[in-house]
Design goal:
The chain is 45% helix and 19% strand. The protein contains eleven helices and ten strands. A hairpin with a 2-residue loop joins β9 (259-264) and β10. It binds S-adenosylmethionine (SAM).
Length: 274
Amino acid sequence: MPSLKAAVQLDYFAGMIEKETGIRFSDGTYYQLEARLEELASKFGYKAGIEELYHTILDNQDPALKKLIFEKATNNETYFFRDPKLFNALETRFIPELKEKFGAPIRIWSTACSSGQESYSISILLQKLGIPAAGFDYLCSDINEAILERARTGKYSQLEVQRGLSTPDLIRYFRKSTVDSSWEVVSSLKDSLRFARINLLEAWPHKKKFHLILCRNVLIYQSIENRRQIMRRLVDALEPGGYLAMGAGESLVGISAEIVQVEHNGAILYRKKS
Ligand SMILES: C[S@@+](CC[C@H](N)C(=O)[O-])C[C@H]1O[C@@H](n2cnc3c(N)ncnc32)[C@H](O)[C@@H]1O
């Protein structure tokens, strides 16, 4: 149980984080917030830990420090081909259907791509389907600039490539570093992606609508009102006939009359009515 003073400080950080990112910490998850802020405070050598971090923020509202706090609040858990049924359905049905329906380029958006495993899994599918770089326009975004930078480099540890990648895909689409034990995505995959920082709660910069949007395992951290609002905006950002993929167990049912649920071999996607 934190002291009253510590609880007030955690409340302050939780409020600041929710306002900027929508990520909610509750009494049950305050211990996670506390551990992450402690880590940040110790990185800065703050002897009084979170208390010193709290007074530093109160005193100068430094945007760079705030950004680090927001980044600490994000959960970046991800792996290659997370939810294999979805990737299988995209490969065997939905991407070929979009190619047939919309021609080139198929416009794709990964709205919370974290360190890039979701994006590179999709670009592996595109290559397997014989769709050249000119055949798609793929925007990969996240709120966390540091994690996005990792995605941009396309470099993964031995442990990370073992999570979800098959050996043939690893050999075909990655090169082992000669310097350390990391693996790097081949440039033909990397160069065809665009990375940008986008906060789902703020205005989005796109002018054109997308044919496929992935918004997976990010809205679970948001309030119900934020979820509904973001989902409605995602439907707006979708071309009629395009698809929206959510995380397993995340549903768009009841969000918009413009959307129909489509099931294929155990994967569920949402199609915007034409
Ligand atoms: C758990 S990861 C999911 C990664 C990937 N989509 C997957 O399913 O494997 C959630 C990501 O959402 C990002 N995120 C959290 N809040 C966000 C917001 N308001 N706008 C954009 N991205 C956000 C985090 O930085 C994190 O990288």
